[in-house]
Amino acid sequence: MLDDGDRMALTNKEHEYVKKELGREPNSLEYGMLDIMFSEHCSYKSSRPVLRLFPNKGERVIMGPGDDAGIVELTDELALVIGMESHNHPSAIEPYGGAGTGIGGIIRDIISMGARPVALLDSLSFGHLEDPKSRYLFEHVVKGISDYGNRVGIPTVGGEVEFDENFKSNPLVNVVCIGLVPKDAIVKGIAPNIGDIFVLMGGRTGRDGIHGVTFASEELTTASEIEDRPAVQVGDPFTKKQVMEATFEALEKIDVQGLKDLGGGGLTCCISEMAAKSENGAEVEITSIPLREEGMTPYEIMLSESQERMVFVVHPEDVDRLMAIFEKYELPAAPVGKVTDTGRFVMMQNGEVISDLPCELLSDPPVIEREARKPEETHEPVEFEEVDPKEALLNLLSSQNIASKKWVYSQYDHEVQVRTVVKPGDDAAVMRVDDEKAFAVTSDCNSIHTKLDPYHGGAGSVAEAIRNVVSMGAEPICIADCLNFGNPEKPEVFWQFKECIRGMSDVAKRFNTPVVSGNVSFYNETEGVTVNPSPVVGVAGLMDLKDIKTSDFKDKGNKIVVIGKTRPELGGSEYQRAVYDVVQGKPPEVLLDEEYQSAKAVLELIRGDFGVTAVHDCSAGGLGVAISEMAISGNIGATVDLSRVPSPAGMTPSEILFSESHGRYVLTVREDAAEELLMKLKGEVPAAVVGKVGGESLIFKDAEKDVMAPELEAIEKSYYGVIEKFMA
Amino acid sequence: MKVGIIRFPGSNCDRDVFHALELAGTEPDYIWWNQRDLSDFEALVIPGGFSYGDYLRAGAIAAITPVIEGIKESVKENKPVLGICNGAQILAEVGLVPGVFTVNQNAKFICKWTELKVKTVRTPFTSMYKKNEVIKMPIAHAEGRYFTENIEKLHENDQIVLSFESENPNGSTEAITGVCDEEGLVCAVMPHPERASESILGSDDGLKFFKGIVNY
Lengths: 728, 216
Hints:
heterodimer, A: Phosphoribosyl-aminoimidazole Synthetase, Chain A, domain 2, 7-stranded mixed beta sheet, 26 helices, 28 strands, B: Rossmann fold, 9-stranded mixed beta sheet, globular
């Protein structure tokens, strides 16, 4: 049993604040409840003032940040619900269960809005696969996602995987979940009517996950793997599926007043936030809570993060009918308390008060103004001896970060629910909404750019995600984020955080695309190693089904067009990481207007009648990798003249091939339509025909000079089977 | 034509099958696992998913539920029954089709599009294909490796319905991934015809599985 006095994380200042607000010393149960609510994970006390920079309003926004997930209008009838969550610390300790419950948590957030989850994406970061521990974490995280996501019947349609030394002991597991809900059926995490009943449903409450949030708000140590196992929740996808179906049946048949899932902070967080949102109070009888094990103390019950639980708020006369639905699904459930007008969260044990706290105090802890300081380190550019471009390209394609991720996504059911029109492996997944509309969704992050320059790295991560959605033919409508950083108590880390958000906000504002939901994961440090700052960005876009443009080369003779300017920006590129093993220099800059103009032009080309046959975003690995990927997926070669790529004079072929300048797209267009397409772009964005599709090799020239001509077969051989070599 | 879709806790392709059955012009309806009397329905489909979480063994718990008795009754009345993925595992577990579907050779979940050969057209579900026609449908399973000790009997009785063409992703005996009972009315297939019922999703080759019920 856990000692009530264990691992308190309230600062002295917070302790004083609590005593002043309460007019007395909290008892040990109250102290525990305050402790989790004041944790960084639940309170966002460090990040809140900075997150205000994000634009969160817009014509489509139905609900911005602050609840479990964001909601935007999608069609006349439907709204899209989006949420993101990290499960980094649990996955470092117990990769299989940690990854599974990460998915479980974000699914519950979507269900809590009354929405049916329709897509999952996972953004994962590990150490290199040469390292056995990293292979172990990678294998079990992927299996955890596969076993959980597949069982609950939600397609996993996208994501990304990064391998870098700095994630070796602190992997990142970030999950995006998207749901759809009729606009008139949205529910919220509120408790609006005095006298309504709280009904707890789903998994029984056990001793798992106690202190999960406080543990997520600390750095990991080597002892964590043993000491912190009890803080990792145990997931159960089968029960989750039942909880989901029972919830939808209840929402359909009963006038549910409020709905919220139990995640970080367990019952304490769930009920206090619901009551506080409606400026009401709550009275809960602790003996009424269905338990999984005997002898649990009130402290353990209130802090448990046992999975697969939901709280419904309903009128007293609806309780019996609600319970009957849960009985049909054989789910434990019980009325546990009622909504009061006191503004206080009162816990009773057999009718006696055992804790009594203002809901406001629990749900709205004071923010902490953290110090931010630019680090001393500089990222001077380095000079390299140029290697043979062909060797460099094949090297890049076979690097763990660029190579095909088929090993991962073939373990995920990406077809269930019969919506997945564009499957994993392209720029973004495209999911059918109805007979005309679809949404495109992606998640992206560039952690090395962010490490070298948090402003442009953050901005670039948003820009890349937007490009991926635009490449499919969709207009971005909302952004969600998951911000993975080190210890915010360190001024250098907090500076990174602030700069990154400034960059992300600038791009979001330029595109007039609101940030509707997000998650902050601090303390990603283990034994003195801080992870590269990783702003993972999810973007959803709306499109017509008829406008879908995949990235594969289609027909021989199609002209290849590059849109956007290529600059000598090799700092922090995949080229430097893969070929020279260096993360150094100044990363590419995001030029807001150019980025916006390119995206606008591409969407106009796709939606108009300009003969566009394929579109691909240009990001990690530059033009060289983008064109190779188009050739690989289309199984046809091409000839490209690098001297025709819009770029300043004097760039070397390798710079043109591998520079990661933002604001660029590669298109193919029907031969007869190319001229008109260029005319249309004239004066709007830099663009040029650089080559044509055809043949069995990828021939790169620099005007008259040959640069390289690798055979398609060699390119495919490099790109496929890389991860499989390590994972068997 | 009323077609029943059997739902177990953990079924997750029930809605997808409903959609495909509607596209095929039938009137689908759901049946909960504890229902015994299925006499209202002219045909039955057991959809994919993870009934009872696939805990113990895929299909093992679903096989002892009351609805199975109803299914057996329907089989006796010569009504067509189709099991897809988890539904196929359940039919094999119950013994309504020969052989078993067990853990994939690579011990991993595999989700991918495959080319399949239609080996017999005598079942209602394959009645609209040509014999040996090659069609495209996706698979998504961790326990789909078909195994039987009595392969000759399957050949003799024309009980092989589908086999993988040009590959054998899960290591099945003779690349078989769909079988039927001796009468050809109970069909168990691992690939998902409902996921290949509209060209926008990659192929509409699978729709004939459902149209075949009406046509039969």
